[in-house]
From TrEMBL:
InterPro entries noted in UniProt: NADH-Q_OxRdtase_suN/2, ND/Mrp_TM
Oligomeric form and interacting partners: NDH-1 can be composed of about 15 different subunits; different subcomplexes with different compositions have been identified which probably have different functions.
Pfam families associated with the record: Proton_antipo_M
Gene: ndhB
Alphabetical keyword list: Membrane, NAD, NADP, Plastoquinone, Quinone, Thylakoid, Translocase, Transmembrane, Transmembrane helix, Transport
Residue intervals of the NADH:quinone oxidoreductase/Mrp antiporter transmembrane domain: 130-426
Gene Ontology terms describing biological process: ATP synthesis coupled electron transport; photosynthesis, light reaction
Name this polypeptide is given: NAD(P)H-quinone oxidoreductase subunit 2
Purpose of the protein: NDH-1 shuttles electrons from NAD(P)H, via FMN and iron-sulfur (Fe-S) centers, to quinones in the respiratory chain. The immediate electron acceptor for the enzyme in this species is believed to be plastoquinone. Couples the redox reaction to proton translocation (for every two electrons transferred, four hydrogen ions are translocated across the cytoplasmic membrane), and thus conserves the redox energy in a proton gradient. NDH-1 shuttles electrons from an unknown electron donor, via FMN and iron-sulfur (Fe-S) centers, to quinones in the respiratory and/or the photosynthetic chain. The immediate electron acceptor for the enzyme in this species is believed to be plastoquinone. Couples the redox reaction to proton translocation, and thus conserves the redox energy in a proton gradient. Cyanobacterial NDH-1 also plays a role in inorganic carbon-concentration.
Taxon lineage: Bacteria, Bacillati, Cyanobacteriota, Cyanophyceae, Leptolyngbyales
Enzymatic reactions: a plastoquinone + NADH + (n+1) H(+)(in) = a plastoquinol + NAD(+) + n H(+)(out); a plastoquinone + NADPH + (n+1) H(+)(in) = a plastoquinol + NADP(+) + n H(+)(out)
Bilayer topology term: Multi-pass membrane protein
One CC-aspect GO term: plasma membrane-derived thylakoid membrane
Length: 532
């Protein structure tokens, strides 16, 4: 076999965006070695952001690929993967903007932080397009191990060390569980590793309803749900969010979660079409538990980071509505909401970082009267929180509206009604923060706000924070009013992805049920069966 034939079979151009990220990582590391830490602190972030935006540009050029399959079927650069890879890359770029001042002030090297962050983004991008068990696991571990390192990056902070240890122990357990489920799939399929071939071989062998396949399903869902932060695999989320460096939390809440949802879609629709009713039931149960627990427990939080942690659990429950629906509208609503979540959640974390840098605290009570001292920060945080709550005309409102419409159209009335109720609950704790910042009288200011330092954007690392803050504010507001481009992008991505089209047809053909509500919510028995 000559080189040209091998190159055509590998089709390595499918991972060109990932190649750009790898080149950027190497450039950042070499630059740091050559010019030293003090100078690379200023140059490395620019190189990293340019590389990630270059990767996004390369993704755009792949939109109309005639042959998206690369590496003999191990990687699929279809339209769905392009959207999810773009979300991961943009979340990493946004995280860099908010992390420069934070990491530099903590006394740890910025260039090394950027290299690990981009490695995590690389793992998330590869995971979004992985179509083979070995590649799925390698990409998953690339993302996970980098995330553990980022979580414990501020070595002098005991809370960061504790968060990293908890994340490592729980993450290693979830990886082992996922690997066991993958090995069962490998054995049941007679030695296949590609997801679509696994389903074909299991069906041909007559094992479509075997207990082994059900066990494999449960174990793999457990591993994926850990990445999504879904109940009951959420135990790591509050502690890790509170103890980790705040920029790391921002990336985990968007980039890592998006990669987890991409894996869930590809794995469940590709390898488990034979047990579609079973995984619909399991994912519906996870969605119900996540929406209820995430939004109810958030009511009692006193720390902004823990509040956003439980908020992210509830948001994962909302997004899973699109997954259990299994229709074209369901998948496209997931993509739309994740894009919206990228804007509003990164904006919220940028505000939290800015406030903590100026006051040294993230307690909700300390935000009291902030409008008097920092109107821009108050406006940006208010807009992002109201968008997370689903208040019109922010982009989060249209994201939830699209998700709930897709669920209602499929007949998942119980899930939609529960989503509406828990959304109303979430609005309370979001508006509580906004009220704290805006309504308080001057004499009711917190001590942190009374001693608020003079705003100086010229300090090193503050200008990128300001840019990120303004971009998030404008995007969260503008894409709510002008959301049609995002709607079109999500719909076209689903239409151009054959796997999702086949999954929707398969779901319709089998008349699958979204949930057997007797085991989850007996009062919803008559409401939650989809008309697919």
């Amino acid at each position: 076999m000559d080189f040209a034939t091998l190159a055509s079979q590998l089709n390595a151009g499918t991972i060109l965006p990932e190649g750009v990220v790898i080149a950027t990582i190497m450039t950042v590391i070499i630059t740091d070695l050559i010019i030293g830490r003090s100078r690379s602190t200023k140059i490395a972030p620019l190189i990293a952001i340019a590389g990630l935006l270059g990767a996004v540009a390369m993704l755009i050029t792949q939109w109309d690929l005639t042959n998206p399959i690369g590496f003999l079927g191990a990687f699929n650069a279809d339209a769905m993967s392009i959207v999810f890879r773009g979300i991961v890359a943009l979340s990493a770029a946004g995280t860099i903007l908010m992390s420069i001042r934070y990491v530099d002030q903590s006394g740890t090297p910025v260039a090394e932080f950027l290299a690990i962050l981009m490695t995590a983004a690389l793992g998330g991008m590869l995971l979004s397009g992985a179509n083979e068990l070995v590649m799925v696991f390698v990409a998953l571990e690339t993302l996970s191990i980098s995330s553990y390192l980022l979580t414990g990056y501020t070595k002098r902070d005991p809370r960061s060390n504790e968060a990293a240890l908890k994340y490592l122990l729980i993450g290693a357990s979830s990886s082992a569980i996922f690997l066991y489920g993958s090995s069962l799939l490998y054995g049941l399929s007679g030695g296949e590793t590609q997801l679509d071939k696994i389903a074909t071989q299991i069906t041909a062998a007559g094992l479509g309803q075997s207990i082994g396949l059900v066990i494999a399903l449960v174990f793999t869902i457990a591993g994926v749900a850990f990445k999504m932060g879904a109940v009951p695999f959420h135990q790591w989320t509050p502690d890790v969010y509170e103890g980790s460096p705040t920029p790391v939390v921002a990336f985990l809440s968007v980039g890592s979660k998006a990669a987890g949802f991409a894996l869930a879609i590809r794995l469940l629709t590709g390898a488990f079409p034979m047990v579609i009713e079973e995984w619909h039931f399991v994912m519906t149960a996870l969605a119900v538990l996540s929406m209820v627990l995430g939004n109810v427990v958030a009511l009692a939080q006193t720390s902004m980071k823990r509040l956003l942690a439980y908020s992210s659990i509830g948001q994962a429950g909302f997004i899973m509505i699109g997954l259990v629906v299994g229709s074209n509208a369901g998948y496209s609503s997931m993509m739309f909401y994740l894009i919206a979540y990228l804007m509003m959640n990164l904006g919220a974390f940028t505000c939290v970082i800015l406030f903590s840098l100026r006051t040294g605290t993230d307690q909700i009570s300390e935000y009291s009267g902030l409008y008097q001292k920092d109107p821009l920060l108050t406006l940006a945080l208010s807009v992002c929180l109201l968008s997370l709550g689903g208040i019109p005309p922010m982009v989060g409102f249209f994201g939830k509206l699209y998700l709930f419409w897709a669920g209602w159209q499929a007949g998942a009335y119980g899930l939609v009604l529960l989503g509406l109720v828990t959304s109303v609950i979430s609005i309370y704790y979001y508006i509580r923060v906004v009220k704290m910042m805006v309504v308080k009288e001057p004499q009711e200011m917190s001590d942190a706000v009374l001693n608020y330092p003079e705003i100086d954007w010229s300090v090193f690392g503050m200008r990128p924070l300001q840019v990120g803050l303004i971009i998030s504010l404008i995007a969260t507001s503008a894409f709510g009013i002008l959301s049609n481009p995002l709607f079109s992008l999500s719909n076209v991505a689903v239409e151009k992805t054959p796997m999702l089209q086949a999954a929707a047809v398969n779901s319709d053909a089998k008349q699958s049920k979204v949930i057997k509500a007797e085991a989850v919510a007996p009062q919803l028995v008559s409401l939650v069966s989809p008309k697919q």
